[in-house]
Write a structure and sequence with these properties.
This protein is mostly beta strands and 430 residues long. The protein has two helices and 30 strands.
Length: 430
């Protein structure tokens, strides 16, 4: 078969995403209550779920307030509470049967079944074709984590790692499509991998190729908790990715996107906030005048979760800014790009198009602060033909202007605000 790696880490991951991520959910942004029905999760077995809660007095898996974290990886303020005899929520992602695919989950278990019970199922092409499973079983002082390929029994290390209850844990599982036969695909398990090391430098807990290979692409995962032989605990996040580094690194949502906090003359003060950022090494502010070639204009080492600001000089015309976020394992991602006008273009302040205007025109107003302004149209004799209030936000604002009722002729459109006084531009109505 074609070669594929699949990895699942029982750890935090938030909802977002790197370019190679197939799933990146942070339950911190979810509504408290039933998971099914939120952000693509479903327990509907006709879709990608494994079934609803069916027992007497049972409830579907809920999102609850629960803080979870794993050192150098991240944290979450909410989690999915999983107990036996609930539903089996699942989520789809882009089917993949080439290259590498990785995923991550943050767990904290308070109980495990005496015999092996499923924690996670990764499926391929349907709800009845399991590619691999993560199993757990109780042992003295805690629990062990094992794996299985398709419908095989759980496989554990000869002397398995003892995982204590009531602690946040990171586990990784990998599915590898091989091409030699119909039974050579491999599943590999890692328990608490070192996130500062590469995949090759982390020693697996165990690996197995026992069982028949799947023929379809891996395309969904489930928490199969509609059964009595399941563990009890919490899952604080889920990721599925095409690379080991991307699966095990804090997502972009933990760096709030760049904002223009203040602008005066040709200077801009840019602001962003870092939260749950233990896996981030540094953040760079990059600038460009063409949105293609960016250069670093400010760099900030991670000194904790807080608000950061950088003051930079703006070039005349259009400027583009973005954040470059570098994780402790070397992975890089970028924020969305922010456009800011500086210099001569900013000084003009307002523009009306088209000229001559006919029935409808478009007014562009550049604001250096958020405030209320008044827009007036005045004729050659100084008479106010129309006037209305507008709400300005920092940056460029676009408003429609109805000139259909104005007689043909020459006019001035004026914008007055407390911070910038009166600005005006002349136009012709035809």
């Amino acid at each position: 078969m074609k070669r594929l790696y699949f990895s699942v880490a029982l750890s935090l991951i938030a909802a977002n995403s790197f370019s190679q991520n197939l799933i990146n959910d942070n339950f911190s942004t979810y509504a408290l209550g039933t998971l099914s029905g939120q952000n693509g999760w479903t327990n509907n077995s006709s879709l990608t779920g494994g079934g609803t809660c069916a027992g007497v007095g049972c409830v579907n898996s809920p999102v609850v307030a629960r803080s979870m974290s794993y050192a150098t990886f991240g944290s979450s303020t909410q989690a999915v509470n999983l107990v036996p005899n609930q539903d089996a929520p699942g989520k789809a992602f882009t089917s993949t049967n080439t290259g590498s695919v990785y995923g991550a989950f943050l767990i904290n278990l308070s109980a495990a079944p005496a015999t092996s019970g499923d924690l996670v199922r990764i499926l391929a092409g349907g709800n009845f074709t399991t590619a691999m499973r993560i199993y757990v079983r109780a042992t003295s002082g805690g629990y062990n984590v094992g794996i299985a390929k398709e419908t095989q029994a759980a496989t554990y290390k000869a002397v398995p790692t003892l995982v204590p209850y009531n602690t946040d844990q990171l586990v990784v599982i990998k599915y590898t499509y091989n091409t030699g036969s119909a039974t050579d695909d491999a599943v590999t398990l890692y328990v608490n991998p070192n996130l500062s090391l590469s995949e090759a430098s982390n020693i697996p807990e165990i690996a197995t190729s026992t069982g028949t290979d799947v023929t379809a692409g891996i395309d969904r995962l489930q928490f199969p908790f509609n059964n009595s032989t399941r563990p009890t605990g919490f899952v604080g996040g889920v990721t599925v990715s095409r690379s080991f580094d991307n699966a095990l690194v804090l997502p972009l949502e933990n760096v709030l996107n760049i904002q223009l906090a203040k602008q005066t003359a040709n200077t801009g003060i840019f602001s962003y906030r870092l939260q749950n950022g233990s896996s981030i090494a540094s953040i760079s502010l990059e600038a460009s005048t063409n949105a293609v070639a960016f250069t670093t204009v400010a760099q900030q080492a991670n000194v904790g979760d807080k608000q950061y600001q950088h003051q930079v000089t703006l070039a005349d015309g259009v400027n583009y800014f973005r954040l470059k976020i570098t994780s402790i394992n070397g992975s890089v991602k970028y924020s969305s790009t922010l456009m800011v006008k500086g210099g001569a273009m900013k000084a003009q302040g307002i523009k009306l198009l088209p000229i001559p205007a006919h029935d409808q025109a478009s007014l562009s107003v550049y604001a250096t602060v958020s405030e209320v302004a008044t827009v007036s149209i005045v004729d050659l004799f100084g008479r106010v033909m129309t006037s209305r209030g507008i709400a300005l936000v920092l940056g460029e604002n676009i408003f429609p202007v109805d000139v259909s009722t104005l007689p043909n002729g020459n006019y001035t459109i004026r914008v007055f605000s407390a911070s910038q006084g009166s600005r005006q531009v002349k136009f012709i109505k035809q």
